[in-house]
Amino acid sequence: GSADAEYDVLVLGGGPGGYSAAFRAADLGLKVVLVERYATLGGVCLNVGCIPSKALLHVAAVMDEVSHMADLGVDFGAPSVNVDKLRGHKEKVIGKLTGGLAQMAKMRKVTVVRGYGSFVGANHLEVEETSGSGQDKTGSKTVLAFKRAIIAAGSQAVRLPFFPQDDRIVDSTGALALKEVPKKMLIVGGGIIGLEMGTVYSTLGARLDVVEMMDGLMQGADRDLVKVWEKMNKHRFDKIMLKTKTVGAEATAEGIKVQFEGLDGTKSEGVYDLVLQAVGRTPNGKKLAADKAGVAVTDRGFINVDIQMRTSVPHIFAIGDIVGQPMLAHKAVHEAHVAAEVIAGELQGNKELASAAFNARVIPSVAYTDPEVAWVGLTEEQAKAQGIKVKKGLFPWAASGRAIANGRDEGFTKLLFDDSPEAHGHGKILGGGIVGTHAGDMIGEIALAIEMGADAVDIGKTIHPHPTLGESIGMAAEVAHGSCTDVP
Ligand code: FAD
Prior knowledge:
The active site is at 466 (proton acceptor). The strands form five sheets. Strands 1, 2, 3, 4, 5, 6 and 17 form a seven-stranded mixed beta sheet that branches. A five-stranded parallel beta sheet has the order 8-15-9-10-11. Helix content is 32%, strand content 26%. β18 and β19 form a beta hairpin. By secondary structure, it is of the alpha/beta class. The chain is built from 14 helices and 22 strands. It has helices at 16-27, 43-48, 50-68, 83-107, 172-177, 192-203, 223-233, 329-348, 351-354, 380-386, 401-405, 439-452, 456-460, 471-481, and strands at residues 6-12, 32-36, 111-114, 116-121, 124-131, 136-151, 155-157, 169-170, 184-188, 207-211, 237-241, 244-251, 256-262, 267-272, 274-277, 281-283, 316-318, 365-367, 372-377, 390-396, 412-418, 429-436. The site of flavin-adenine dinucleotide has 37 residues, from α1, β2, α2, α3 and β4.
């Protein structure tokens, strides 16, 4: 086929980056086409990432909570799990959200083209129609012409090369499919995705082993936060193998036999009904024929961009997982808005819009485990490594009326303030971390405080409602300021 219409903006990829860019561009009055190989919009996040994992984690958290209720005087007895029904609930959640996106695209008159996109020039993308799961190409091709493009093609799970092809070896997508609950499960990679899926499967009845190359689980978070999670989750694991590599695997009738090697040379082996590979994600940059458009792609498949999300080609932008870490949906969405605004500004001669830039100071991270672990901005470990003097305000939830009433007072809230001589004792907040139930819902306040340049007095004097877990943020600030005299 040939190009019969030129679009103002072509967006490649329908994940949180892509649909957010397409919607913002359409809202700003541009003619937009969105290319996605799968039947539904939403990308990894809605279909096989953030949302389905949280649908399952919610159920796991309720099950865990209910199991503690006997101590409080209410015994629900042993749960009876219907995996088919649970999977059905997860599918329904996805369907609601992806259906909503399709409607929003229609309302905004965004043209959605289903197929696999490859660049054929600096202003043209060829789309080969796909069907079924999105992997099957039908052979029917169209070429779309565009003035500007936004690449939002995302990332995919890394596969360890020595793992055999076997249904019992899955990545996060396979784990979310929730075919059945294994007796014994191995999680390769102790990061957020692996530990979230481990939480779900263990609550449903699986025993877990985890293997991690680094010297601790949940890298990136301060160890004091992770320690609380570890103490509460030890019971799920038979073995936590740190500083250990997975070096081989074979499929046998009894299970997947996996070989490990410690960094000190110790060798060991385990047999598993299910193995989850969660060793990271790799960007899709090398699969788009980006060179045909002149767009530079790194050896690892990332596309480098400036703070306006512009690639090496000035009229082509890139956003989301494909431009680098952290690979998080909320980062993709913000980058999407920047790219769409810059493009609209340029095409419409609006200088203010055209000068949009991604200048967020911080991007929060959350492990939606039980308890949750959330952190934002500078960590204590980074402060130490970078020689930044900080004043710490730590509020233990053992002193929080609400946490105690909830029967969940294992957590704490920690804030870090600039304590350099130039701060003269009124240092701004640089970072914070929370471990405890609902930590992820609360970390946004600390992100806001950092963006606004708040100091300990600003946060401590802000009246938080009592009794809430959120007031632990105000209390932590008072601790840092030295004015915390009583506790609720
Ligand atoms: P993606 O969501 O990867 O979307 C890219 C889209 O482009 C895909 O739909 C793909 O089909 C399409 N595509 C790619 N190439 C082509 C092509 N050539 N032609 C046509 N279409 C193409 N993040 C969070 O912030 N919070 C969470 O709780 C969270 N949980 C997660 C849990 C799991 C199990 C996983 C795997 C990820 C999770 N993430 C989470 C990460 C989050 O999913 C990603 O950061 C986010 O989806 C990135 O958005 P994106 O738009 O950059 O790319």
